[in-house]
Amino acid sequence: MEFVSAIAQRHSIHRYGPEPVAADLVHEVVQAGIESGALYPEIAVRWHIAWAGAQVTRALRGQIGIPRVLNAPHYVIALSEERPGYMENLGYRMEQLILTATRAGLGTCWLGRALNEANVRPLVPDITAGEHIVALTPLGYADGSQTAQIVEGILRWGANGVEEQKPLPGIASHYIWTVPWTGGDGDMTHVLEQVQRAPSWSDTQPWHFVVDERWVIATVDHRPRRGNVREGKVYYRLDGGIAMCHFYLAARARGWQGTWMVPEEAEIKMLRDRYAIPETHDVLGIYPVQRT
Fold this sequence. Notes:
Elements: H1 3-9, H2 23-34, E1 45-50, H3 53-60, E2 74-81, H4 86-103, H5 117-120, E3 131-139, H6 146-162, H7 168-171, E4 172-174, H8 186-196, E5 207-211, E6 215-221, E7 229-230, E8 233-234, H9 235-253, H10 265-275, E9 281-288
Parallel strand pairs: 4-5
Antiparallel strand pairs: 1-2, 2-3, 5-6, 6-9, 7-8
Helix pairs in contact: 1-4, 2-4, 4-9, 8-9
């Protein structure tokens, strides 16, 4: 399965069967995280496998926003050193791990913004100063029982009821912020449709992309909304990193050769002025459009 197919098929799984995942397959998924492309290669990221999923389930019990039905056999816990850009970098890298799990037929579920780090830290050995647990995902096979399917349907209906997936003109602009994307470029529209499918907390989709002939600019709304800042972590930037990952993987599948670059402060000011990017949005990256 290609990554674009995985993007189309992946959804959060909240109930898992008891069958453990083969160790070599778990390591294959984690290796994808280790080898994942990064927005900030200099930021150290670490992946911890919690083989005894019941321990993590107990640690998560009762936390607001985390479904009580999570009962996965394993979890992957993502840690990062705290440096500028670490949230979007972790989102960018971990989504590659999660999509690799999807390709392998495994269920996952992003858990981050509702996470109480103090409850999970005792399960991870050798945490260093400046290193934080940012997110985690269960890892296992979806419970195929009729009861589980009913629960999954209710949870998905509830999540989608918070906010429907935004249309493309709501997440992308053409040449300047005030001009919504209306299509006309089939390849770019296809890539943006994969961004449209990126997961985010409560389906808020805080990102917005400005498309020029030469490059694409990724931004994210930093205004307070539904607990998008928790324990000092700016989870709206993690969501932005996930969306940037979807853009990159979809663009690569089309044969494009670009990669995300992080702009300097002077460049950000220039981009704001030229494309009328509002102060409500942080500029996360620039993707030079290099089509084959």
